[in-house]
């Protein structure tokens, strides 16, 4: 089994910060978006489990938790790059005159919902995953990942 590295270049961004907590992300709407995510939200998974009760995105094994943690990093990166790109495109179209103020406001609002809000969900998931990973490692007597602050 592969071990989780203590530190990598991207950990500075991806590791939960001291101020991050489940409660913070719940207040920012993580549970609401989690419910409706079309690629594995609560409603989708409930329907899927009716027909395939054994189906799970993540199990309690350390390997599964670490694999899902990597997936949250990928998902967050994709949404963050899309958010920045689309915001830049909307502002440039506005600056060139091909997008009016109302169009800019609508574009940026949609960008917040479809681009940045999923980042909140990924960070919420990661806070929960780090807690589960740390618990799993402490039960195994290993400390290959830095504990949450």
* Shape field: globular
Helix percentage range:
55-70%
Give the amount of beta strand, in percent. Answer: under 5%
| Biggest sheet layout | none
- Helices and strands: which structural class? mainly alpha
Overall pLDDT: 86
Number of folding domains? Answer: 1
How far from one another are the termini? 26 Å
Number of helices: 6
According to DSSP, the number of beta strands is: 0
Q: What descriptive keywords fit this protein?
A:
disordered N terminus; 6 helices; 149 residues; mainly alpha
Which helices and strands appear, and what pairs or packs with what?
Layout: H1 11-14, H2 22-27, H3 30-36, H4 42-51, H5 62-96, H6 101-140
Helix pairs in contact: 3-6, 5-6
Short synopsis of the structure:
Helices cover 68% and strands 0% of the residues. It contains six helices and no strands.
Could you explain how this protein is built, in words?
The two termini are 26 Å apart. This protein has helices spanning 11-14, 22-27, 30-36, 42-51, 62-96, 101-140. It has 149 residues and is mainly α. The protein is built from six helices and no strands. It is globular. Helix 3 packs across helix 6 (101-140) and helix 5 (62-96) packs antiparallel against helix 6 (101-140). It has one domain (19-139).
């Amino acid at each position: 089994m592969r071990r989780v590295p203590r530190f990598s270049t991207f950990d500075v961004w991806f590791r939960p910060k001291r101020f991050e907590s489940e409660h913070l992300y719940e207040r920012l709407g993580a549970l609401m978006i989690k419910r409706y995510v079309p690629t594995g939200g609560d409603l989708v998974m409930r329907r899927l489990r009716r027909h395939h009760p054994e189906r799970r995105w993540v199990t309690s094994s350390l390997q599964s938790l670490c694999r899902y943690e990597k997936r949250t990093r990928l998902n967050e990166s994709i949404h963050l790059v899309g958010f920045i790109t689309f915001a830049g495109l909307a502002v440039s179209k506005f600056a060139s005159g091909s997008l009016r103020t109302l169009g800019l406001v609508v574009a940026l609002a949609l960008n917040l919902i479809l681009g940045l809000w999923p980042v909140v969900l990924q960070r919420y998931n990661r806070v929960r995953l780090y807690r589960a990973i740390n618990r799993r490692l402490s039960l195994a007597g290993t400390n290959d990942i830095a504990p949450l602050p």
